[in-house]
Amino acid sequence: MDRSVEEYQKDLLWQTSLETFYRVAYAESLMSSVLQKWKPVDSAIKSIVTVTTIASVMVGWMSWGSAAGKVTWLVIAGSAALLGLLHVILKISDRISDLSHNAQYFKSLRLNLERFIYEMEVNPDFPLESFKDTFEQYREWLLVGSQMLKEDFLLTHRHRQKIQNKLNQQMGDMIL
Fold it and tell me: What is the SS3 assignment for 2?
């Protein structure tokens, strides 16, 4: 293979590897940030439903004979039911499970790409063909991971921009 063609292909591999690394890091950051938003909501709703369910039983048992007791019970039981339904309707547990899986998937891919880029860096005479094959596998994993991603109403344009700006700061001149 002509040296200039090989150098061009290595440069291209470098460029596309760094771009892919950035995309993977961005996807991982998005999934992790949304996961961090959903976890407290999940915990809060589960805690409130637990407390209000127990309070509902106690209030009903202690003051069922009075009109105020029945209204208090209705408010407490209704709140618990509403929050429980909201939790199910929003599929919060499923969201958390999916986001956790996706964040872990992209973290694993990012770490593999980090190692791949490091290997190219420490050995500038890396064997082009085997590295191209490895990189193609990583691109395939990115495609699979991208297809697993689901839209989430917490992933607003503003939130995406915030994550991207933070990632750009963290990565410095590596990509930009």
Answer: coil
